[in-house]
Amino acid sequence: MGVVPAAAAAVTAAAPRRIHELPDALVSQIAAGEVVERPASVVRELLDNALDAGATHVTVRLAAGGVRAIVVEDDGAGIAPEDLPLALRRHATSKIASLADLESVSTMGFRGEALAAIASVAEVAITSRSADAPHGWRIEAGQGGSGEMQPAARGRGTTVEVNELFFATPARRKFLKSDATELAHALEAVRRHALARPEVGFAVWHEGRPVAQWRAAIPAARRAEVLGAAFADASRAVQVERGPLAIEGRIGQPEAARARADQQYLFVNGRFVRDRLLAHAVRAAYEDQLHGSRQPVYALFLRIAPELVDVNVHPTKIEVRFRDGRAVHQALLHAVQDALASSRVLPDDAALVGASTGGGAAGTTTTPAPSGSAPSWQGALALHDVAALARERPAPWSVAAPTAVPVAARGSGMAAWAALRPQLTGEDSGDPGCSGAAGPPSAAPVSWPLGRAIAQVGGVYILAENVHGLVIVDMHAAHERIVYERLKRAAATGGALPAQPLLIPVTFAATPAELATAEAEADALHELGLDAGVLAAGTLVVRSRPAALPEANLAELTRSVLHELAEAGASRVVQRARDDILATMACHGAVRANRRLTLEEMNALLREMESTERADTCNHGRPTWRQVTMKELDALFLRGR
Ligand code: ADP
Ligand code: MG
């Protein structure tokens, strides 16, 4: 005994190692490793329990970022005195009793391991009183706990105290970060719950000071509060129902995207999840509006029949598995795509605001709501709320992104729009500065949101005037989007893109690689409206052009497409490759800088933007237009001070 070093024994031992059962405490500690990573995990579990108990208000108190103390108080159903010791036992739960229950679980918890796990790595005390108990009871667990119950004073509900996390496992404690970092993670856990459950009030205290508070609110108000007014302003509503699946929430405009994926909230049946399938669907919806490295912002809430999703695939339930993952992926992809597709150029919430004010500005809007972002009472509330927020806190930007302006103007904007419109469209519109002559609101439909073209600047920008002031359009970027959407529509109908045979075929010099691709991909080229072939060594001939691209330089277009085809290679069947090619073609087909446009051409472009999906951003995610309001113009000239 003790003579042979352990390592040597391991190498030389011929006899098998004996099996023994691990002590209970160690089993719990091992299990705790999966559930409790840091104070934020404890906060998450305790909040889940409070919500499962039907709490309407939850208070979280933290000390030293939660490492020294986490106290969660709720006003939920409480725990029956005789069950109190059981609450701390492993695999003891009040939430499921059978496999059938597990398969349709609708509570946040069901594994019965959180409290046991926490108690194995920290000092835990629970004080709870159920509705029919004459007073509360307190039980202490953990290394120092006696397991004895004592009477305690408390109203209905439960308080769980967790002290000195990882006090007995210094190795794990070492992995914790600074108090400030741990506090930030814990706060994030509360934010997620606050987003999921707007009807519940939450308060967070750190070292005796309040750090966050959310009162019970309607969903839209809670989201605006948690995610901030900036998010609310630069986002659109999503609201779709497909059979057993409902999706709602808000998605950020492409230009609100961030460098980091830190504002992406996905919830499934009220549970925050990090799901690759879902994240991929959202990402794919942004595909041709966002640079690869930019991260969209969103808060999306999926509701699905519990039996169609398995939440028991991960100890912390952060991952889920759908019975029909593909269907969910497609539904989410399309929901987000549709919401993004309705261009902001159309006041996409005009109809909603009209609805929320009971149609007060009667007849001012005949714009139908864009398909996909079906307005609902919830959407109406969201926008109403957002408009109110925006009025309180005007957007900080001097030259506002297009989003900021319409949002601020939405509440009162429609009436003003109608009143001002005659000045912009009427023949007598010589002096739009005289705004005193606001006649009775006209019943004219909202039209020309991007206004009337007045000039071209630098061969690059179109200037237009609308009710808000000055509109600046990047004509190439805008036209590129228009052409791209046109090409995609044509491609979506199946078969080849319409081609226009050339009277005189175009020939140009090509590299051996280009010639090889042209031969190998003749069918693909034909489908794209380009009938190209090898004329002689080193020379390509093109006999047709895509009908949608009358302006494109054929040699350049064909070279780019050949390059894309060579890149795409075998993955050509993939939609993405096809979209890339169409995007390249659109770029060649769009008006070039320095091309002089007539006023008619400029106006035609503006009108096309207004009726094109995703017209607010070019294919590379840059904005296509900006609004400079009258107010901002006045400010430039110190007018009206
Ligand atoms: P689970 O939540 O998976 O059931 P836990 O270990 O988190 O497992 O909790 C064990 C049990 O303790 C729960 O099933 C519940 O009955 C009870 N419980 C825990 N926290 C609360 C609370 N805040 N209010 C009421 N009951 C609670
Ligand atoms: Mg639990």
Verbal overview:
The structure is a single chain. This protein is an alpha+beta fold and 641 residues long. The chain is built from 22 helices and 22 strands. The strands form five sheets. An eight-stranded mixed beta sheet has the order 5-4-3-6-2-1-7-8. β11 and β12 form a beta hairpin. α9 crosses α14 and α14 packs across α15. The site of adenosine-5'-diphosphate has 22 residues, from α3 and α6.
Summarize the structure.
This protein is of the alpha+beta class and 641 residues long. The site of adenosine-5'-diphosphate has 22 residues, from helix 3 and helix 6.
What attributes characterize this protein structure?
641 residues; alpha+beta; 8-stranded mixed sheet; 5-stranded mixed sheet; 20% strand; elongated; binds adenosine-5'-diphosphate; binds magnesium ion
Topology readout:
Layout: H1 6-12, H2 24-35, H3 39-52, E1 57-63, E2 69-74, H4 84-87, H5 99-103, H6 114-121, E3 123-129, E4 136-141, E5 149-152, E6 157-163, H7 170-173, H8 179-196, E7 201-206, E8 209-214, H9 219-227, H10 229-233, E9 235-242, E10 245-252, E11 264-268, E12 271-273, H11 276-285, E13 298-304, E14 309-310, E15 321-322, H12 325-341, H13 350-356, H14 377-392, H15 404-425, E16 452-457, E17 461-466, E18 469-474, H16 475-492, E19 499-509, H17 512-520, H18 522-527, E20 532-536, E21 539-546, H19 554-568, H20 575-589, H21 599-610, E22 625-629, H22 630-636
Bound molecules: adenosine-5'-diphosphate and magnesium ion (MG).
The site of adenosine-5'-diphosphate has 22 residues, from α3 and α6.
